[in-house]
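Q: what sequence does this backbone want?
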């Protein structure tokens, strides 16, 4: 509990830090509202007693005007409260949401392996939304309602100690009863959240894989699974809704008991001439204010519980660190570097060796073609070069620096990795090329387009850079999406480019056209081209063939081409894709 409170306070101080004045104003407005709630019944009491005892119309009118004015002020205060609470809550949750998204974008591949996008959205949006109340008013409402509750009880004591004692006992019982019922509700609510997260995860995954789901005729299976999940959801939803309604009924019943106590004791005291008729009304009115703060306090406590679950999920996410550690150094990669891979070994899991004792060196501006059977470790090697994962042993150096000593920002600005899965956003071609970086001018983009000989192709978009693309490049062919990916890369002006089977989904004709672009793209840079078809790498300087995570063959392309004993020679002879996998 102590550590929970500590983490609540940490979160509050972090996200409410810049809003101190607003929070102060909000507290003030809430306290003024409470004072008015305590004063108003007193006016009504005086009104009733005055009306019963004399005909002082002018006094009665003044009281009525005062009552109405205070009631209006009370409404205005609640308007201001809502406005301020929204402002404070939204600012805090928006900053938290931004922090979470930024954090997720920094996390490495290992984190994403076990996570579905929908589940992450449930935390970044669902849990953060739950914290809205926590940020905007939870603490304030807890304190102000406690003050209201104590204030009402003191008012009872002020009138007569007997009603005071009775209402204190009643409040304690009401608090206990509400707590009991809310605990039952919380159990169902938690279960409900668990299933919601599962459903969102599944729906997110299914939608992002629409093409494959449709292409494989798996729609019915997906719908069946969703149906099963929803079936699980329904009973838990029903239980939590019923628990919610039972809560409401209990509250109404308690309110009725509070009224009854006020009437019974009020009448008893009135018969003994201890209190007036107006005071009985006062008792009745305060009884209304008795259950409400108890309920509000309970509600906040319950919200705190659900906020607690959300906070712990958010904290867990924020505490999650990448296995790949970023270097804090300011090292800048030397221009025209060479790449040295020195005896590296790597496995995704412990005690697993996907790559074994790999060593090679690529001089500046040289290109290497990487071949090998499916699963031989080509993509894994590429991922290590851009530090999506870190090697288990050995060293990768770019220029004179171990890539672990270079910051990820610097490394990934100088090394580009392009796969066949080009990810495009719903936005203009410009946004897709620059990743919303406004510092990249249109002139620079056009220069890049010209540099890799795509001017003619690009001219066919009548709206040019303003052409709007659908999500995942809807409106473009796979080859065109690939061309955009190349322009993106060129805008980075990297020293090294890794192309991972970029053209394997394309037809041979498009692939041939793409090849010219690739050659231009790699000019003056280190190039690593992972390929399945040998003719797509007929321009590279060196060839490396992997098998079962080891180098099977490595040498100059021209030499291997003419060596009839080489694997590469055999591949070229057959020239077939199947054969390219040794
Ligand atoms: N993220 C991952 N987590 C665990 N194992 C992985 C992961 N990615 C790949 N592997 C495993 O590592 C091995 C090498 O895979 P890799 O993708 O590097 O092969 P590849 O040569 O690029 O194959 P392909 O030609 O089919 O792309 C495979 O056995 C694969 O199952």
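A:
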């Amino acid at each position: 509990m102590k550590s929970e409170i500590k983490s609540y306070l940490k979160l509050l101080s972090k996200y409410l830090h810049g809003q101190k004045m607003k929070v102060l104003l909000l507290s003030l407005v809430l306290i003024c509202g409470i004072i008015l709630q305590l004063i108003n019944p007193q006016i009504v009491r005086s009104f009733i007693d005055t009306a019963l005892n004399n005909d002082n119309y002018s006094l009665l009118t003044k009281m009525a005007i005062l009552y109405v004015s205070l009631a209006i002020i009370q409404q205005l205060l609640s308007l201001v409260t809502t406005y301020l609470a929204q402002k404070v809550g939204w600012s805090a949750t928006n900053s938290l949401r931004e922090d979470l998204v930024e954090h997720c974008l920094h996390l490495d591949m290992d984190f994403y392996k076990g996570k579905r996008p929908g589940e992450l959205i449930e935390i970044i949006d669902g849990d953060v939304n739950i914290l809205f109340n926590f940020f905007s008013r939870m603490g304030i409402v807890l304190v102000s309602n406690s003050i209201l509750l104590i204030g009402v009880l003191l008012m009872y004591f002020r009138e007569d100690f007997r009603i005071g004692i009775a209402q204190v006992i009643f409040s304690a019982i009401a608090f206990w009863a509400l707590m009991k019922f809310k605990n039952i509700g919380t159990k169902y609510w938690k279960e409900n959240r668990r299933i919601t997260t599962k459903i969102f995860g599944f729906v997110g995954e299914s939608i992002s894989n629409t093409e494959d789901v449709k292409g494989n005729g798996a729609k019915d299976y997906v719908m069946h699974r969703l149906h099963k999940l929803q079936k699980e959801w329904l009973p838990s939803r029903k239980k939590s809704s019923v628990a919610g309604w039972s809560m409401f009924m209990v509250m109404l019943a308690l309110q009725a008991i509070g009224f009854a106590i006020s009437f019974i004791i009020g009448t008893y005291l009135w018969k003994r001439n201890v209190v007036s008729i107006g005071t009985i009304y006062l008792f009745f009115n305060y009884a209304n204010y008795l259950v409400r703060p108890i309920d509000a306090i309970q509600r906040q406590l319950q919200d705190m519980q659900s906020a607690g679950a959300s906070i712990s999920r958010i904290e867990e996410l924020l505490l999650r660190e990448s296995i790949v550690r970023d270097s804090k150094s300011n090292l800048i990669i030397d221009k025209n570097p060479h790449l040295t891979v020195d005896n590296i070994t790597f496995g995704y899991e412990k005690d697993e060796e996907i790559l074994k004792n790999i060593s090679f060196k690529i001089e500046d501006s040289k290109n290497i073609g990487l071949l090998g059977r499916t699963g031989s470790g080509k993509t894994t090697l590429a991922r290590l070069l851009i530090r999506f994962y870190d090697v288990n042993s050995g060293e990768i150096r770019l220029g004179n620096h171990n890539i672990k000593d270079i910051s990820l920002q610097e490394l990934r600005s100088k090394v580009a990795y392009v796969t066949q899965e080009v990810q495009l956003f719903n936005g203009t071609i410009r946004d897709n090329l620059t990743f919303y970086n406004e510092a990249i001018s249109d002139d620079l983009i056009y220069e890049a387009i010209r540099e890799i000989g795509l001017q003619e192709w690009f001219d066919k978009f009548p709206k040019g850079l303003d052409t709007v693309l659908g999500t995942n490049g809807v409106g473009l062919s796979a080859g065109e999406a690939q061309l955009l990916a190349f322009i993106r890369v060129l805008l980075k002006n990297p020293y090294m480019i890794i192309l991972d089977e970029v053209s394997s989904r394309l037809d041979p004709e498009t692939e041939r056209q793409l090849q010219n672009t690739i050659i231009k793209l790699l000019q003056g840079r280190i190039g690593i081209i992972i390929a399945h078809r040998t003719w797509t790498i007929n321009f590279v300087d060196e060839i490396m063939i992997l098998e079962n995570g080891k180098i099977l063959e490595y040498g100059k392309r021209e030499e291997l081409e003419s060596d009839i004993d080489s694997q590469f020679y055999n591949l070229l002879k057959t020239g077939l894709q199947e054969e390219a996998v040794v």
